[in-house]
Specification:
Enzyme class: transferase
Structural class: alpha+beta
Radius of gyration: 26 Å
GO molecular function: ATP binding; protein serine/threonine kinase activity
Catalytic activity: L-seryl-[protein] + ATP = O-phospho-L-seryl-[protein] + ADP + H(+); L-threonyl-[protein] + ATP = O-phospho-L-threonyl-[protein] + ADP + H(+)
CATH architecture of the largest domain: Orthogonal Bundle
Organism: Quillaja saponaria (Soap bark tree)
Protein name: non-specific serine/threonine protein kinase
Number of domains: 3
Shape: globular
Distance between the termini: 64 Å
Strand content: 15-25%
CATH class of the largest domain: Mainly Alpha
Amino acid sequence: MADNLIKKASSKKENSSPLLGRFEIGKLLGHGTFAKVYLARNIKSGESVAIKVIDKEKILKGGLISHIKREISILRRVRHPNIVQLFEVMATKAKIYFVMEYVKGGELFNKVAKGRLKEEVARKYIQQLISAVGFCHARGVFHRDLKPENLLLDENGDLKVSDFGLSTVSDQIRQDGLFHTFCGTPAYVAPEVLARKGYDAAKVDIWSCGVVLFVLMAGYLPFHDQNIMAMYKKIYKGEFRCPRWFSPELSRLLMRLLDTNPDSRFTIPEIMENKWFKKGFKHIKFYIEDDRLCSVDDKQNSEDDMTSLSEQSMSESDTEVEIRRRTTSLPRPASLNAFDIISFSPGFDLSGLFEEGGDDARFVSGAPVSKIISKLEEIAQLVSFSVRKKDCRVSLEGTRESLKGPLTIAAEIFELTPSLVVVEVKKKGGDKAEYDQFCNTELKPGLQQLMREESAGSSHLPSDTE
């Protein structure tokens, strides 16, 4: 067990004081030129984590400050069930600490080193790899060093992409729309990278995925030679042969993944529509809650699940839904103090404000919390958004992918007075233009309609001034 390993390793250390008072450091998992990775345990939660310890002096001398900053930014941007998670970053005068998800199963490389995989097993790994890579690409992140050594397996046998040290983002593209940095592992590098004329990083990742798929199914590399220049020539010409045990569907897929012409090479959507790839494929559903990745169990139908109001209405009548909402006890919203109110904005108008500023918006209402939550669900239904509810918080998430991911909006209800509440709306992810449009065309009119309904039905509420 991981915890036993931590305790044994910790007991051997002379200085067993917890790291920054929070983590017990265990055995060394691996090391490189600038960093070491240790198994560790969160003292408070008991959770096993991996901590990457980076020497500040070494990265300063190597001029890698921007490199480390970019890696942190990328890991925060690409949170996905098949990508190793970065939980937090800590620092002292001498060290930087990445607290990351501990993936217990080791490298996929170790599994392949024992021999080729069964087709259904290889297909599962490639499906998970393509899902993760597609997720990264949709957010303008490109790995550029995909290989079995950078693909880890967790205790459930699920794949996790790691080591974003050579990854890059779309804002590093030159004016010609291409990347120009030579990087990657020789056997997995795409021919256009070897040409040193600029390349589409998304297509480079797809080539590497093709090499990974070949290796999983064959047990050896498609392009291999003891002389590296001879190997580069094979890659540049696309000279490889599929073994006899490859099915025709698999061979055709590999020909499109390992196409030396990046323009005709398969894209992520084309891969996902491929007959061989699609067999048994299921899209992963997940969400971020309290800065942690949470998976969605489709079999659960509780109110806290990601679900749409339209799905509820199919199984319950409107009357039943309303009764359930009335009988469900909601906790009292958190109260706002004077400093909270002052910080909102000058000229705060309690007669029905929808104050907007940047990615935040606020709305004052005399409606009960349950009615406000119902209205948010109703608005979400109109645009086919998913809804998650927890206490006095509601999260709305769209399905349309953009460079910054799907539009995600968090709404939280605070108590202003015993008869008035403030609904604070924030953009948590996605494109700002899409957020502004949603607020102006759906959210703002919907909440203002609720205000008018409450004003008409309750004489003690402020009247609408519009």
